[in-house]
Amino acid sequence: MSDLDTPHAGDDRSMDDDVVALLMRQHGDIRNLFDEVEASEGEERRDAFRRLVRLLAVHETAEEEVVHPFARRNLAGGEQVVEDRLAEERAAKETLAALDDVDPADPTFMPRLMKLRKDVQEHARAEERYEFTHIRRSADAGQLATMAKAVKAAEAMAPTRPHPGVESGAANMALGPVAALMDRTRDTVRKAMGEKA
Amino acid sequence: MTFNPLEQRGIPLDRQLRNWRELDVPPIDPDRCDPYTRCRIITMNGIEVEAILFSHQLARNTVDPEIKRQLARTRYIEAQQQKVVNWLLPGVSSVLETTIAYEQVAVDLTAWVARMEPDPYLKQAYQFGVLEDFDHLYRYANLYEMIEHRKAESIVDNLTEVMPGRPTKYHHRNPVDNVRDPYAKDEANPLSKLHALTIMSTEQQTMNFYMNTGPTYMEPIARQLYQEIGLIEEEHVTHYESLVDPGETWWEQLVNHEYNECYLYHSFMEQESDPKVKAIWELHLNMELEHLHEACDLMRRHDGRDPESVLAPELPNVLTFEPNKQYLRELLDTQMDLTTLGAGYVRDAHERFEKMQEQIHGGEEPPSERVMAMHDDMFGREYRVQSEGEHPDPAMREK
Question: Which of A64-68, B5-9, B56-60 is modeled with the greatest confidence?
């Protein structure tokens, strides 16, 4: 891989006034982190995996709180589309929670990570094709921008980039287990959505 | 190893039909496959699409209902071959990811053909064209990072460099300057005929792909870039199809098509790294051998000529997907500023070219330039993969 760094969604200089564009870039960021975990070893792999877990948690929670409710309310047949996506997300979260307890040096870690990578990628494409397309069709510019702000608020509360001095083991511990992180993300997103409503 | 398809027999035609279970092939893993496996799939899809379209045109120009029925029978098998080959591509890939793979095919296939082509005029046609596909890869790679935050190297895997070629905005030439002179069918090396047919078919498939998938994008810059490059692909089809001698009879063309399919399936079978895909190349080669025999019979019957008189005595050296980085760098160093004038090439922008440029750009930057400006706004840099050092042309180095 080249040395070029692709910043995470929200950290590039995009206007971020369209929730769909933002989430599609985040899908790429997630794939990049899967690659990083796979390509690294030891402590680096642990670190990359922590960041992947955080980004996945924040991303999926933000989608559940922001875009799925919109799809449910506004799309014809939205209920079923969202149900299908939620089933995929539940399965991915279970794998993720289980994987979170496994040491990256454990021989079962990589095969399980590869399975998760495949499931997450299929889920992301299904969202882009069967949900996001319809959201762009039925949401106006203001709604797309409001939803984008809520997603960014979620990311701000659980930084997913390595920040100097914050990447210590203690800081990771402070973020706590995946479930707690998701809870806190949910609260933040709800607050952001409430302010905009 | 010598292999003469005229002397081999394959699977009898009445045993070539496949059922749903046999057509339902598992797709490749887009993130873990050999990129050149995907290139071979895209190439053979283009070859099979051309086989089907050519057979349809031939049928529309055929009066004898018995021959129409014979063509329909083989064409249905070819349609099944196209389905199996193209369905090896995974549904999880985005259109843009498949597009970047198409451009990798255009770069490394055309570069290889240019290296191996014995005729200097034909060689120049491939050298000219490959620098344009090379630039398309670079523009799409930058669009890909903008939309999906992914790097094109996750697709092309450092086998192919990503950097500017001849700038896309200069590919818009007056259409009359896209028409080349054909090779002479009775004097051309048989390998030259196979090369022309192969590149014409793959460029045609690229044209079809962009013209149909471009409007599926919602991002305005993506829609516009597909429109611009889609028009250039039409120019490329004009460029390459005009290399083929129009004096070849329908039956002679049919024989050349079938022979080329044997050549390519054989080539790809020899080098395929994925065993499941290799099995498909082998199966299809064994089908094509019979299609070739049938085409030879038709040529003997209707033209009163021996197919051996127009074909190579044995299959040429296998056509190979491999990195062409140094070769492309030589072309970047020497042929960036070429354009076409009539059926030849010149270094200076001539009147007809300037007029076309003025009309199509309408005083504005085209999508291929705007995509770079938008990428720069977003990331403050370009996306390139220059694994072998700086760009050979100092004017094309990143500022």
Answer: B56-60
Radius of gyration of chain A (CA): 16
Of residues B31, B145, B385, nearest to A6 (C-beta)? B145
Token pair belonging to B24? 């339902």
pLDDT at residue number A158? 61
pTM to 2 decimals? 0.95
**If we measure between CA atoms, which residue out of B159, B154, B88 comes closest to residue A34?**
B154
Beta bridge partners of B340: B345
Give me the pLDDT at residue B156, please. 98
How far is it, in rounded angstroms, from Cα B8 to Cα B309? 18
Tell me how far the alpha carbon of residue A52 is from its chain's centroid: 9
10 Å CB burial of residue B132 (0-12, 13-18, 19+) is buried
Give the DSSP letter string of B168-235: GGGG---GGGGPPPPPPTTTS-HHHHHHHHHHHHHHHHHHHHHHHHGGG--SHHHHHHHHHHHHHHHH
Nearest CB to A24: which of B148, B154, B384? B148
Structure confidence by residue, pLDDT tens digits, B283-304:
999 999 999 999 999 999 999 9
How many interchain CB pairs under 8 A, A with B? 58
Q: For residue A176, give Cα distances in angstroms to A46, A59, A171, B275, B332.
A: 15, 17, 9, 45, 54
Inter-chain residue contact B149 with A133, CB threshold 8 Å:
no
Preferred mutation among B149, B155, B161 to probe A, highest tally of A CBs within 10 A = B149
User: Residue B138 pLDDT more than 60?
Assistant: yes
Indicate the average pLDDT of chain A. 85
Report how far apart, in Å, the C-alpha atoms of B130 and of each of A85, A186, B268, B335, B377 are. Answer: 43, 51, 21, 10, 29
SS3 B345: strand
Neighbours of B204 (CB within 10 A): 20
